[in-house]
Predict the structure.
Amino acid sequence: MKKEIILKLMKKENDIRKVLHTARRCRHYAMCKVDFLGTGLCPSGKKNHFVSFYPQGMMDIAAAVLENRIPVTTGVVEVANECNLCGICNTQCYFVTELRPFVVFQALKSYLDDYLQSNDPVEVQSDEFLNTLRSITGNKYATNDPGLLIAYAHDPCPISSETMPGYAVVPADTQQVSEIVKLCRREGVEYTIRGNGSSAMGFVLGPGLIIDTTRMKKMEFDTGNRTVTIGAGVSAFELQKEAVSRGYRVNAAEPSALYCANIMCSGLFSLFSSSYGTGTDNLIDVEFVSKEGEVFALSQRDAPNLYGFSKSEPPIQEICTQAVVKLHPIVEDEAAIAVPFSDMQSAVSYAKELNRRHIGLGIGVLGGEYLSTFISPTSELAETLRNIFHEELGIEYLVMVLGNTHHLEAARDMAPVVLEQELMRALILGIPALGEEGLIQILRGMEGEEKPYEILAKPEMLPIIETALDPSPELLSEAVDSDLKSFYQKLYSRPELTDMLWLNTFRIVSSRMGRDGHLIVTILYVPLDNLPQVEEIHKGFKELTHNSGVRGEFGFLTPIDQGAMGIFEWDMYLDHADPEEVAKMQKAMEKAVTMIEGFSQQDPRVLWIGDVLNKGFSRKEAYLYHGASFS
Amino acid sequence: MSMINSPILITGATGFLGGFLAGELIKRGRRTILTVRPRGNETARKRVENLLKFLNIEAKHAPIVISAEIDTPGMGLSEEHRRMLREVPEVLHCAADTSFAERRKKQVEATNLQGLRNVFELVPHCERFFHMSSAYSAGTQEGLIQEEMLHPPGFHNPYERSKNEAEKLITDLCREKDIDLTIFRPSITYGDADTGESLRFNALYFPVRTLLFFRDSLKKDIVEKSGTRAAGLGVSINRDGSMHLPLTFPGSGRLNLVPINFLVKAVTALMDSSEIGIFHIVNPKSDSIGQLIQHIERHYSIFGLQVADEVVQDGPLQTLINSYMDVYYPYFCDKRVFSDYRTRQMLEPLGIECPELTPAIFNRCMDYAVEAGWGSKIRI
């Protein structure tokens, strides 16, 4: 073979390797399904609804096609043709993971161009079940094409195994869902519900039919009643955006998660849960489709009691099709402060005390890992910042307090030191300069009894910090890839991108916690009257992850129910495309479950997400008040 | 006399004092064993190679380098290395954590106390132990500080306490085993008075670094921006290009400064002698903060710096300087006198004398520090 041909082939193989490296690393977090940067949505996804047409699905399809795991079907060709290479995905995905899906789609298109010159795509034959499905939803909204279904074979859980479904359907409304469930019951087809083509936690894989609720976009505000009715396809980001534009806020968690699915999954928790509550606290009414395909509302007197809770009972089987939820009015003087601590007990005590006294709309103890990852535009800077927070400044934990002027005044009074919004803005926009020799080393050199962060937090320090860092969107954009600099300059010129209150309301930067790899989130409810136990749990996770050879970090703790309980999150990270890491993580998770059960035996009030999973419509009182009910 | 042909164990050889002392002993052809902590991707051996390169030394006897963690029991050594140390007759213990930070108290104690014990336990046949302490193990003791064991009423920070306790610990341990003990107590050590070279840029260097940081950031604001931030901080540039930085330093008391090359000469001379006990490695002519400010103003064209008896609270820059002075006040405004009677008796006949910090030496040392990026460009 000629040298040029060999070189060409080698280059091609190398290019494919790079493409696959990106394609296999999609976190299935569905951020490409919400317009969180104001770039607009992927036009193909918006038009075609199946997750297969969004960047997330296309990554899976491209990987499967290039690895010859699925045939080139008409569905694959349609997906590739619908993608106009607009590049929105590149900006969105880079913001979250630093991945560049664009090259993957280019490669898929180029591969198909070559392939189709001498081959025809496989046309998958319909069957009776699919025909009936299509008669319910319309032809376009049901499929059995593996080229499209492969996008439903993965979910955000990084240790789940690929499970190829037989069919996928995107119903428009409750009536269609009801008919689909009845059909499945009749035909003995297993079905699995998926929100947004994924859900925040995962565990939404199945071999039968996938019912993707993404088209159910109903959103009706009743500001007189301070409620909004939302369909099962509305994402937390979409809902929050609409609510905020009307002067309200909802208690929302992950921006890409579908709001109804998120309630179902875990009962919704965010920093705002410290005042807005969790479980059913924000629900007025919910509509379901039962296992039998019957439609009912929770407000009906003869409705099944989904408010109850039993640890031993399996997750509920009903499908939430719409919900009426509370709107919380926004007061014009709301803002945020951050209170740094060098130890967990002090941080949790402070957060608990605020909550006990009804101070603050939102409260959360964040770990240094969380914070540095959230506010850094790149992984490299996050690493630098992590070191700065921990080693140089001595910040191990940061309590974020969101509230109105009066809340924040009280929170300041109770805090040892405070990092004000203006300072946080300077730090966020000045991150690239923070990593340089200068300000931080000067602060570190002054450390005695006073910790460096205490010096940093002095109000009179702000002009020095601003002079030293010279923070600006231009400076921040220096950190990102050159082709994205001008986009980042514009993006960070928007005040909300450095506004702690906005960032906590919309949570767009929290998706960055999956930037360095995928992650497994472990959430526990912990009683806050026993802070040494909280530290024990924290220490237990630390040792467990260390001994299991996986990277693990404390995520956050939010006090709820007037400081009675805390929602505690511990995160474990992995490269989900590496089978060894997946195996290690599976073992770590097994150990984690055993450890948590041990803590639960010591104190039955300790409850983990596994016990509550898909029982999110239970009243929080049913699972947080151990031994206080009649049954 | 030192045991010239037998090996000496040196701890802390990649630190400031330990590094220069190890270099000197290696240069003299002394057989050395260095216990060194690996750092990041740098192995212990690589760090020593870096040190020798930095000091421009070609070793007649290549040092034996042992990778060790001083605050770990047994220092994490293999049996082979333990065997090697068992036969060592002399130790120069320079390893120390010099942090003044309250939050690092546990680490400071682990290194300076448990670390010392760990070292001692590994050298059962040691005959002579040289322990690097600090003049500031005197804590809050006032007046004339003698070259003897001290029992101060308190301490300014965890570092001082640990150094004082370490002196007592090693004294007890050596007494029990009838080992000759020499304790060196240097004051604030800066770079080489002849070359400016240094490995650490804290203490004396820090206020200069801070002022230059202010100068450069504010100059940028004035020259490249509107200068509003600088104006808000009361800073301006004069017609001749000099900068007006209105800052006040507390002025009472003095600083005791010794250059590293003097310390090396003094310590090695004392090690060569058969004298044991405590020696103050200090400067009989201490400097005032006013003198230091004069050096800074002349060398860097910074004006507006003042000395006052009381702490001034005025503006952001002053707040930062005050934070610094909170930590370093005991050393920069020291009213104590460190007696060096015993040390001088030994050094004067050898013509070893501590130089004054002249403007030329100050400039040389600070220029070196700036060039070295305050240490960021030195990898050891």
Observations:
- The longest strand of chain A covers residues 518-527.
- Chain A touches chain B at residues 342, 394, 437-439, 441-442, 445-451, 455, 458, 460-464, 466-468, 470 (CB under 8 Å).
